[in-house]
Every structure is written in structure tokens, then in C-alpha cells.
Design brief:
2 copies of one chain form a homodimer.
Chain A (H helix, E strand, L loop, with lengths): L1 E7 L2 E8 L2 E4 L5 H7 L8 E2 L3 E3 L8 E5 L3 H6 L9 E5 L4 E2 L5 E3 L5 E2 L2 E7 L8 H6 L1 E8 L2 E2 H5 L5 H4 L5 E8 L11 E6 L2 E7 L7 H9 L9 E3 L21 E6 L3 E9 L1
Parallel strand pairs in A: 6-17, 8-14, 9-19
Antiparallel strand pairs in A: 1-2, 1-5, 1-14, 2-3, 3-4, 6-7, 10-13, 11-12, 11-17, 12-14, 15-16, 15-18, 18-19
């Protein structure tokens, strides 16, 4: 199934794709649907539906850095023995088609990523339990403010600007997508491809990450885990590249879809 | 005023201290009271009331590391030009009197801190706006799992174990407490004093921290900011000390109160 939170003339609703149209699911959005733990029983066909941020209220948005060999190489680090994790809040997220607004003068970079959506509560889970708790996969771009990220040893302040991490447009269930078999994670800036990685190269695959995180904190339905970015970020280029006002960032994961967001620096 | 969330025979309620007793405030806890933005009008006297975690559901718990000169020195770092920030989630918090449960074998350390509670929404705030938005101050201990903290460059996985950061027992309003004039932050382990710092020595004072964070993300009523720990943490000792099963950690900020928590490693 391909699920989303869609905007309709009557408000938002969780919805499932049915060919080229959408059918309502019984909750106002996917955060509410996953929290309610109800069957994804498609209801009425929606005449007018546009996907928006699928998960407006994850309790946790946990990110893994340094998870693709080519990106680890471009940062000059060694392959890590454990997942490098940092946190965002729900406020950091935004939807497909939204402008990403940041102040003029900051150094903005792209990081296309596969995101995992948690479907069941997990604590001290093993790999099999973690795999079974995956509700689906979606697309994210961990847009980063590099000068703020570099100000201190901790990346948080370069990673948690409000409404700067696009997520969506749809959540694809595991029966339709297998990142361990490989899906491609792609970033284009103004139509030029800058990143292309394959999730089968992840140092720490999705279920490994969820199980690891669940060692120290509870994951709940609707929580999101970003799995890291492949090589090709702007600061890895020679000379380093940054996003400019008006740049259009397309973030794609094959089999899921494309996020299109415009950078606005003012 | 000295406010808390208290457990009564009829459930929890926000409450304000009145001499040696408590009077109810019109919300189930301080998170709800601050979110509702109602006057703190004391109601009925409570015959049986015990303070618990004052803020059970902060949307954000943001921590500043490296904010006291003696602690910066014991970590071997230079005085930072910007606040070193990292994030926790509400799940990380626990209340006065609660056991802190962690698996046997991890390296557990103490970090007594003053915590600031946000009372009004802040975004792109200046210092005066940030100061005016402080609802109050409370006590925290950023109990840290050092081996996990050191596994990667990002501290999050050593700082975000569920129910390991005690917070409380009361929130003291700014008319009764002025950390810029100086309050002492103290940690005792099994009755032996290990930390004593003064908040007037903070590299980044409370209002500075709130204003800085509000540059990149919205702070809302009930959000919590931990302001860093003074010198004297276990890993700074010669030889380094760790908390053991059964150790009693007392965390005190003068003018606020004391948190007492027992470490349980199993």
C-alpha cells in the first residue's frame, strides 16, 4: 500500500492510493492512524486530494549519520562501529512542495535519505521484532545548515531548523518495498543529479537501526528514523557547493516518490 | 511561587506550594497548565500531595553542554564561541524519588544542572523577550551513559535513555529566583559532595540560551532547557568514577530543592 496524509476541501485525512486516485483511511492523518492502531481499511474515494507532510506529529525523529561508505569517505571519517545518532523534533519536518525558508547568509546543504516509519512500539527489540514493526518507508532530505552544524561538536543546531526537513510524499508499506534488496536514494538540485546511493550499501540497515535505538529509548507508532545520506553532499564537492535562494531540490527514493522543495533564503 | 505536579489520592494535579501544604492549580499537571496559558490561581488545599515529574510532556528538552569553565576544563576543551546543544525527548525524564534503571555494565555518570522552563512561545526572540518568557526554574540531572556517549561523535545515544534524567521536584518562578545573580548547583553521591557550581559563572546564561535556540526552532510553554553541568563529573575525577548499583544521587539547586534518585543497574 501507498499511504499519505492528503489535503482535501474538507480538511486533511489519512488516505491510501488506489490507482491514480485516493481513498480515505479512518484518521485525520497518518500520525493519528498509526497511533490508533486500526486496520488500513480504504473508505470513500476522494475527488480532490493532495499529499502533504504524512506524519505531522512524530514523537521522535531520530537520524543516523555516516551510514553510506561514500559519504563516510567524503567526510574523511572511518567506518563507524556503531550508528551515529542525533535527534530532531516534529517541528523540523515539512511536506512536499513546501518552501524551505532559512535566513540569508547561512550555509545550506542537501542530504537525501530513506526514512523508516515505526508501526509498533519497540523497546529492547531484536532484529526480527524491529523488522516486523516497520510500518513503511518514505523519503526525507536532512537539509543541513553547515555553518551552525560546525559551530560546536554537536550537530543538532545545524539540523533542527523549523520546517526544513521535507518528508513524504507517501509512505510505502514493506510488502511493496525492500531497502535491504536495494532502492536508490537520489538528490537533484535544479535538475542536476548530485547524489545517488543504494540502500543495500547501508552500513546499518533499517531493522538494525531500530533495534539499536530501542535499546535506550521506546519507539512508538508514527516515529521516524532517517537512515543517513549517500555521497555527493555539497560540502563534499570540489569546490564545496551550497544551496542558493530559489534553488529547487528534488529528493527521490525509487519505488516511493519525489519531494520537490524550493530553498528561500531571506 | 513554587509550583509542581503532585500525586493525590484522586490523581495528579498541578499545584502551588502554600507554606508546608499544596493548593491545586486548574490543570492535571504543569505541562497542561503552561499549555493552557491560564492564571496560576490557587484553589483547594490538598490534604495529601507528593510532587512528581513536574513536566511530563515537554515537546522539547534541549540541553547545553560545556557551559561552566571548570567543566569545560575537565573535558579538555576550549571555551566555546557558541552554545553546544543536543536534544532529549520527554521519555528521557523522570521524577524525584524514582529509581534510575539502566543495564548492568554501562558506564553511568552524574551531571547536576539548572533547568529553565519556557512559559511563552519564542521564535527569533531577543534576550529581553527570552527573559520575559521564562516560566521558572527547576533542577535536573543529565545522567549520562558515558560508553554509549563516546561510541560516536554525537552524544545523543548516551543522553537519551528512557527515564534517566530526573527533573523537579518544583518549578520556582523568576520573581523568587535569579540565576544570573547566582544559585548553586550541587551533586552528592551517597552523601559525598561531587559537584558545586554557581550559575553566575555560566558561559551562556539562561536568556542567552533561549534566544539562541529560538533562532532555529520554536520554543513553547512547557519546553525545558538544561543549562549545563559544573565541574566534578565522575569521568573528570582521578581515577574516573562511575555510579554503581544502589548509589543514591542527590541533585540540588539552592532556592529550588533536591532530587533524590537511586541508581539501579540490572
Amino acid at each position: 500500500m501507498r499511504a499519505a496524509t492528503v489535503i482535501t476541501p474538507h480538511g486533511t485525512t489519512a488516505a491510501v492510493q488506489d490507482g491514480t486516485t485516493w481513498r480515505a483511511l479512518p484518521a485525520a492523518d497518518l500520525s493519528a492512524l498509526l497511533a490508533a492502531d486500526v486496520a488500513w481499511q480504504p473508505g470513500a474515494r476522494l475527488a480532490d486530494a493532495t499529499p502533504t507532510l504524512p506524519l505531522p506529529r512524530p514523537g521522535k525523529v531520530i537520524c543516523c549519520g555516516l551510514n553510506y561508505g561514500d559519504h563516510i569517505a567524503e567526510t574523511g571519517r572511518d567506518t563507524p562501529s556503531h550508528p551515529t545518532l542525533f535527534a530532531k523534533y516534529a517541528d523540523t519536518l515539512t511536506g512536499d512542495g513546501q518552501d524551505i525558508r532559512l535566513p540569508a547568509g547561512v550555509e545550506v546543504d542537501w542530504e537525501a535519505e530513506l526514512a523508516v516509519v515505526v508501526g509498533r512500539e519497540l523497546r529492547n527489540a531484536d532484529q526480527a521484532q524491529a523488522r516486523g514493526a516497520i510500518a513503511g518507508y518514505t523519503v526525507a532530505n536532512d537539509i543541513s545548515v553547515r555553518d551552525w552544524q560546525r559551530r560546536t561538536p554537536q550537530w543538532f543546531q545545524g539540523k533542527a531548523w523549523d520546517a526544513t526537513t521535507p518528508l513524504g510524499p507517501v509512505v510505502v508499506t514493506p510488502d511493496e518495498l525492500d531497502p535491504e534488496a536495494g532502492v536508490e536514494v537520489i538528490c537533484r538540485v535544479n535538475g542536476i543529479e548530485r547524489q545517488r546511493g543504494d540502500t543495500k550499501a547501508l552500513v546499518f540497515p533499517c531493522a538494525t537501526l531500530l533495534a539499536y535505538v530501542s535499546t535506550f529509548t521506546t519507539l512508538r507508532p508514527g516515529d521516524v528514523l532517517l537512515t543517513g545520506t549517500p555521497g555527493g553532499v555539497g560540502i563534499g564537492m570540489t569546490p564545496p557547493a551550497l544551496l542558493a535562494d530559489g534553488d529547487v531540490v528534488e529528493t527521490e527514493v525509487t519505488g516511493i516518490g519525489v519531494l520537490t522543495n524550493t530553498i528561500r533564503l531571506a
